[in-house]
């Protein structure tokens, strides 16, 4: 037992930051494993639940609440978010579907962020100073571009918000970027569910998730580039 503890201590000294990486991989591995193991059964259950709700009179409000709750827990459970959003838009219409999906996606993003942050605080009891320093450095390296590009990609979208919370990504920037990306996704989902179907649907979803945050990043870059010029003129 003592030799095992000594080996662990020696390994952590030789590889500073390894404890953080191991903690991150274990947590993300659990999330991915849940998707691989339970995705099919939860997808069938979700579809049956939605179809059961729409048979009831005045089902719109109940359906909206169920969709929001399922998208909220999407970061933990292998909820078929794309299928769920398309079903919501089909039955709630473009406007109602957009609002419902947007609220659900935003709630899920915030929940995933704080879940990741809470897990890191819990794991910090076993992390060394080097591990925490590694986490701080990774928080600086995790740019908004990664959050934007992964927002419309199944599984990776959930992993990215969890990682953002664990790495201490600035909350204000996280909320701004994910809200813009979620708005684009919600509109794309609602449009596809209400008016469109086909092979181009997934590409449209990815494009929509990139559009609003991309415009924001472009405008911010232009402002930052023009700041020195404006200061010189003054």
In short:
The protein is mainly α and 234 residues long. It is built from 9 helices and no strands. The chain has one domain (2-233).
Please describe what this structure looks like.
- This protein is mainly alpha-helical and 234 residues long.
- It has one domain (2-233).
- The protein is 83% helix and 0% strand.
- The protein has helices at residues 2-14, 18-53, 60-72, 81-123, 129-141, 144-150, 156-166, 171-195, 201-233.
- Helix 4 runs parallel beside helix 7 (156-166) and helix 4 packs antiparallel against helix 8 (171-195).
- The protein is globular and about 65 Å long.
User: Structural class of the helices, strands and pairings?
Assistant: mainly alpha
Number of strands: 0
What does the radius of gyration come to? 21 Å
Provide the domain count. 1
Summary tags:
234 residues
Compile the SSE list and pairings.
Elements: H1 2-14, H2 18-53, H3 60-72, H4 81-123, H5 129-141, H6 144-150, H7 156-166, H8 171-195, H9 201-233
Helix pairs in contact: 2-4, 2-5, 2-7, 3-4, 4-7, 4-8, 8-9
């Amino acid at each position: 037992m003592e030799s095992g503890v000594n080996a662990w201590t020696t390994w952590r000294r030789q590889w500073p930051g390894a404890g953080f990486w191991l903690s991150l991989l274990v947590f993300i591995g659990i999330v991915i494993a849940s998707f691989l193991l339970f995705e099919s059964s939860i997808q069938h259950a979700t579809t049956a639940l939605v179809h059961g709700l729409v048979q009831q009179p005045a089902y719109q409000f109940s359906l909206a609440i169920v969709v929001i709750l399922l998208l909220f827990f999407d970061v933990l459970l292998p909820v078929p978010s794309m299928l769920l959003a398309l079903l919501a838009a089909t039955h709630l219409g473009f406007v109602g579907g957009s609002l419902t999906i947007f609220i659900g996606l935003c709630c899920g993003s915030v929940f995933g962020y704080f879940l990741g942050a809470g897990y890191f605080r819990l794991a910090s009891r076993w992390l060394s100073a080097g591990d925490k320093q590694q986490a701080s450095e990774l928080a600086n390296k995790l740019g908004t571009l990664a959050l934007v590009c992964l927002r419309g990609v199944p599984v990776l979208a959930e992993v990215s918000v969890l990682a953002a919370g664990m790495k201490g990504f600035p909350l204000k920037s996280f909320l701004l970027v994910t809200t813009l990306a979620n708005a684009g996704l919600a509109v794309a989902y609602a449009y596809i569910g209400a008016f469109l179907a086909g092979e181009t649907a997934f590409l449209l979803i990815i494009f929509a998730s990139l559009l609003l945050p991309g415009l924001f990043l472009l405008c911010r870059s232009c402002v930052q580039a023009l700041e020195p010029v404006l200061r010189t003129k003054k």
